[in-house]
Specification:
single chain, 259 residues, alpha+beta, 60s Ribosomal Protein L30, Chain: A, Phosphoribosyl-aminoimidazole Synthetase, Chain A, domain 2, 2 domains, 26% strand, globular
Length: 259
């Protein structure tokens, strides 16, 4: 579910990009388990004062991305009210290869790897990111994916989701975290802090056996950047190794869901 004022703001966001994001975040969830997306149900609560033009823009954004990933818009609901725009998308998919990749399979000695770079998504990436469906499907074919998640809450927070589910720890090297140019340009926080905690990067974070990680780096199976930033350990804590070798606990930086 995406809500105006929380996940996007008008007039900064274009209606087509808002519609695109509503489907893209679901595609990213399917990618996180190396699944194949199939069909979407789209429900929308339209502000009464915004009229038909807003609805058409949102629909155009959803429809374009659905076509790109061969996803059928199978149904949903449309309503109007006195509040802001709210979008809810349910995406159905099916498992591929050896089955869904979960968060709970990380093993000691695994390499921790990511696609893309991190931080500064508020500059625009959170609306225009490319769901890593194709990359996940290829990875599922060529390596043994022990655990995987898409980074929505934040790189550190989502790594902890894997560690908690797998009952493992990790060592992360600060110098190897791929920091985006947007994170460096914002300037109000250290770029590494932004990379670890901003969230809404929607990149893949996964663990593989060391030999598979080495093969991925030696012969990348796609153009999207791949980075090895650490290892899984049996020690039930996560350590961040600074460039000078100093070790500290990695904070659970990122979005915290509170109700």
């Amino acid at each position: 579910m995406l809500m105006e004022g929380v996940d996007f703001r008008f007039p900064d966001a274009d209606p087509q990009l808002v519609g695109r994001k509503a489907l893209a975040v679901c595609l990213s969830d399917i990618a996180a388990m190396a699944g194949q997306p199939l069909a979407a149900l789209v429900s929308i609560a339209l502000p009464k004062f915004s009229g038909r033009r807003l609805a058409e823009g949102v629909h155009a954004g959803i429809e374009a991305l659905a076509g790109e990933f061969s996803v059928a818009i199978a149904g949903g609901d449309t309503n109007s009210w006195d509040g802001p725009l709210v979008l809810s998308v349910t995406l159905l998919g099916q498992p591929t290869g050896s089955g869904p990749v979960r968060r709970s399979g990380a093993e000691a000695g695994d390499w921790i790897m990511v696609t893309g770079d991190f931080g500064g998504s508020i500059s625009g990436k959170h609306l225009s990111f490319q769901p890593r469906v194709a990359e996940a499907l290829v990875l599922h074919q060529v390596v043994r994916l022990h655990a995987m998640i898409d980074v929505s809450d934040g790189l550190a927070a989502d790594l902890y989701h894997i560690l908690d589910e797998s009952r493992k720890g990790a060592v992360v090297r600060a110098a190897d975290v791929p920091v985006s140019e947007a994170a460096r340009l914002l300037g109000d926080k250290p770029p590494l802090e932004r990379a670890l905690g901003d969230g809404e990067d929607f990149e893949l974070l996964f663990t593989v056996p060391e030999e598979d990680g080495r093969r991925l780096l030696a012969n990348p199976p796609f153009a999207t950047r791949l980075t090895h930033l650490g290892e899984i350990t049996d020690e039930r804590r996560c350590r961040l190794i600074a460039a000078d070798g100093r070790s500290s606990s990695l904070e659970r930086l990122g979005w915290v869901h509170e109700i």
